[in-house]
């Protein structure tokens, strides 16, 4: 599709400090996304329950699954956290998963548009969701091995007034029905100029998803199709696998730690990307 693709990594035209096309660059983000200490507004006067932490990010429950966010500020100030119908508890495996196999990653996180499903700009219509070839088989393989999965997605259409939270949730629900439920979705609703810590290539989405799954970032693999996905993984201390599409820049392919021609190959690489847990 035509550039830019604003639903995912920082758009090409408005990315601050972006290197020239084809050049390699080092992201300015650090693995810990620092946030000021404001508190989430409380629903019905009840204090929010802290579900988990990672670095300076705190995942806080403020109501139903579609109303969870990361502190601080109002829910729109942090990534939106959507969960499967059977929620998980930070620090514990997802329900029904076997004990962790130290040879496998703690979790595999997927970009949404252009990786799991066809990239439709600012899509808020679940009827337009089309899984990419191999997405169902690739995610099913991970589930069969007990590897927790999640989705990390930039959705700047929210900040631009083109998408609502309900629309983002409806697309998420449709993908969960088509590909099987992902225990966690971490969504950035901000625009490229908002200076948030969650919008890829910042690490906040990866860190928030890892915290919700009880996964160590260093034992997590992120699969995406552009350089911002790989930069977010690197900034969070995770591994990355790039599945290039016609929209992927040559420099992003050259800079990727690993590349795969399709999603199933990417998942198989993810399963062997990390040394055995505890190996020197």
Description of the structure:
Strands 1-2-3-4-7-6-5-8-9 form a nine-stranded mixed β-sheet, sandwiched between helices. The protein is α/β, with parallel strands linked by helices. 22% of the residues lie in helices and 15% in strands. It is built from six helices and nine strands, in the order E-E-E-E-E-H-E-H-E-H-E-H-E-H-H. The protein has helices at 135-144, 165-179, 204-213, 227-236, 250-255, 263-272, and strands at 49-54, 57-61, 68-70, 80-83, 107-110, 149-154, 184-188, 220-224, 239-242. Helix 1 runs parallel beside helix 6. The protein starts with 48 loop residues before the first strand and ends in an 8-residue tail after the last helix.
Would you spell out the secondary-structure blueprint of this structure?
Layout: E1 49-54, E2 57-61, E3 68-70, E4 80-83, E5 107-110, H1 135-144, E6 149-154, H2 165-179, E7 184-188, H3 204-213, E8 220-224, H4 227-236, E9 239-242, H5 250-255, H6 263-272
Parallel strand pairs: 5-6, 5-8, 6-7, 8-9
Antiparallel strand pairs: 1-2, 2-3, 3-4, 4-7
Helix pairs in contact: 1-6
Rg, please? 17 Å
Low-pLDDT regions: 1-75, 85-99
Strand content: 15-25%
> Overall 3D geometry?
globular
Oligomeric state: single chain
List the secondary-structure elements in sequence, H or E.
Answer: EEEEEHEHEHEHEHH
Q: What level of helicity do the residues show?
A: 10-25%
Number of beta strands: 9
Mean pLDDT: 76
Task: Quote the distance from N terminus to C terminus.
Answer: 44 Å
């Amino acid at each position: 599709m035509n550039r830019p693709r604003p639903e995912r990594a920082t758009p090409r035209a408005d990315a601050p400090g972006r290197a020239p096309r084809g050049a390699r660059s080092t992201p300015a983000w650090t693995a810990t996304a620092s946030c000021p200490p404001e508190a989430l507004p409380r629903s019905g006067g009840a204090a929010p329950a802290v579900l988990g932490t990672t670095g300076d990010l705190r995942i806080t429950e403020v109501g139903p699954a579609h109303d969870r966010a990361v502190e601080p500020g109002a829910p729109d100030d942090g990534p939106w956290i959507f969960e499967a119908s059977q929620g998980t508890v930070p620090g514990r495996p997802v329900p029904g998963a076997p004990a962790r196999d130290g040879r496998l990653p703690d979790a595999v996180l997927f970009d949404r548009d252009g990786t799991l499903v066809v990239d439709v700009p600012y899509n808020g219509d679940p009827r337009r969701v089309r899984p990419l070839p191999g997405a169902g088989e690739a995610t099913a393989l991970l589930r069969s091995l007990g590897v927790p999965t999640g989705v990390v997605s930039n959705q700047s259409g929210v900040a631009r007034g083109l998408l609502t939270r309900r629309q983002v949730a409806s697309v998420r629900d449709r993908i969960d029905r088509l590909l099987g439920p992902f225990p966690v979705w971490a969504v950035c609703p901000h625009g490229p100029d908002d200076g948030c810590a969650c919008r890829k290539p910042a690490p906040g989405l990866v860190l928030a998803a890892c915290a919700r799954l009880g996964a160590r970032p260093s034992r997590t693999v992120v699969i995406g199709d552009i350089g911002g996905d790989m930069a977010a993984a690197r900034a969070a201390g995770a591994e990355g696998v790039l599945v290039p599409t016609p929209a992927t820049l040559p420099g992003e392919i050259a800079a990727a730690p690993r590349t795969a021609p399709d999603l199933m190959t990417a998942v198989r690489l993810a399963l062997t990307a990390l040394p055995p847990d505890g190996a020197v």
